Amino acid sequence: MLSHDSIWRAIDALAERHRLSPSGLARRAGLDPTSFNKSKRQSADGRDRWPSTESISKILDATGDTMDQFLALMRPGGVNGAPAEAGQPAPGIPLIGFAQAGAGGFFDDGGFPVGQGWDEIEFPVAERRQAGLYALEVQGDSMLPLYRDGDILIVDPGAQVRRGDRVVVRTRKGEVMAKVLARQTPRGIDLLSLNPDHPNRNFEMTDVEWIARIIWASQ
């Protein structure tokens, strides 16, 4: 049955099928990246907002999926063909873009997600090793060739960080970056850039707010 929830469920499922967030799917289709955000699915007065037929056409063109496949995704469990178990919603973790992550109010002093303004992305229960996992969406080409625009990085702020790990670092000035940890001492850290066109970075520990390990990427 055609309904507001079923259409948005299909859009979310289409994004998941192609290992994208809803905003990553919108960006790939040439739409405003916020077009499919959950905050855009209802108006300020609580009325349902429907995606346009043009938007649906563009995401199908961008992914190569057919309308029949999209309609199949409108059914509960349409991603894998199995109906969702009653009373067991798909698990999710907080999602935010790198650009937004630099703003205040999204993390506590330990680098754990807090506050409002997060979207949500599904992530398998088996991979949720502990509370506090969150997702960052890559924006731009600064992390090529390893991570592309729209890729999703899963970050575990509670995991031990070792040399050679891919990490996310936030400085006390609000800069957020993904790098490879080359060296860490009580006084500072050395970070290798993922993109050879961007410089390596070095920080005194007094300038670092937190550092967290990347445990998974949607490549």
Describe the protein in words:
It is built from five helices and nine strands; from the N terminus they run H-H-H-H-E-H-E-E-E-E-E-E-E-E. The chain is α+β, with helices and mostly antiparallel strands and 219 residues long. It has two domains: 4-73, Orthogonal Bundle (434 Repressor (Amino-terminal Domain)); 92-217, Umud Fragment, subunit A (Ribbon). It has a nine-stranded mixed sheet. Strand 5 and strand 6 (176-184) form a beta hairpin. Helix 1 (4-17) crosses helix 4 (67-73). The two termini are 33 Å apart. The model is unreliable at 79-90 and 125-129 (pLDDT under 50).
Give the tally of structural domains: 2
Q: What is the residue-averaged pLDDT?
A: 83
Reported for the largest beta sheet, the result is: 9 strands, mixed
Low-confidence stretches: 79-90, 125-129
How many individual β-strands? Answer: 9
Terminus-to-terminus distance: 33 Å
Going across the biggest sheet, name each strand in turn.
Answer: 2-1-3-4-9-5-6-7-8
What helical percentage do the residues reach? 10-25%
Shape: elongated
